[in-house]
Amino acid sequence: MNNYQPSSRRPIADLFRKAAHGAVRACIKFNIHPDVISYLSVVAALIAMNFYLNTGKHPMLLLYAPVFLYLRLYCNMLDGMVALESGKASYRGEIINELPDRISDVLIFVGVAHSGLMNPFLGYWVALCALLVAYIGTMGDAVAGNREFGGVMAKQWRMMVLHLGSWVTLGFIGWGGGDPNWAGLSLLDWTCILIIVGCVQTMMVRLRSTLKLLKSQAEKKS
């Protein structure tokens, strides 16, 4: 049995952890490698991207795209749990666990950017901010030995805000006169602006925590 333990683990709510126990046992029983689950999260993101790319012509896809946002998150949670329970956790696995996450964020928000329902510029800014949020979190682990997960706009909240924005947009298209705009911006524009503001707050929180920890470590050494 591999005794490797990751240096830091993303917090998972007890409700979701308990709900995943059956899936974890099934993956171990059928010898499904955690890397495969990580790759499946990218497949889910690709499907979500494809749905968003076509929402301009087929708005009803806004109803279904969030399903794959959550499937992506579920895979992101499940791969680490399976790796630990099966004894397959490793340094390599930590990279495989992180890289698909970043690819998934970019794929999803590029799809949103080119949905035809918003300004593409804002979609690309969200993708960039998502990468920076993750980078600052992992930087804390690299320089201070502690992965930072604080802030209001971690990946699960980005997906939840996008889900809400998608359904509200669909509601306006279907039942609000067909014009999902407010103050000169579309509802998906406002959704992305909210995510960007949340990402900036999250980056500041994580940077502040890392700098505080580094200062504390320097004081202990001196």
CATH architecture: Up-down Bundle
**Tally of separate helices:** 8
Residue share in helix: over 70%
What is the H/E string? HHHHHHHEEH
**CATH class category name:** Mainly Alpha
Number of domains: 1
> CATH fold name, please?
Four Helix Bundle (Hemerythrin (Met), subunit A)
Specify the overall morphology: flat
Rounded Rg: 19 Å
Describe this structure in words.
The protein is mainly alpha-helical and 222 residues long. The chain has a single domain, classed as Four Helix Bundle (Hemerythrin (Met), subunit A) (Up-down Bundle), CATH 1.20.120. The protein contains 8 helices and 2 strands. It has helices spanning 14-19, 21-29, 34-53, 61-86, 91-113, 120-144, 155-175, 187-221, and strands spanning 181-182, 185-186. Strands 1-2 form a two-stranded antiparallel ribbon. β1 (181-182) and β2 form a beta hairpin. The radius of gyration is 19 Å and the shape is flat. The N and C termini lie far apart (40 Å). The mean pLDDT is 89.
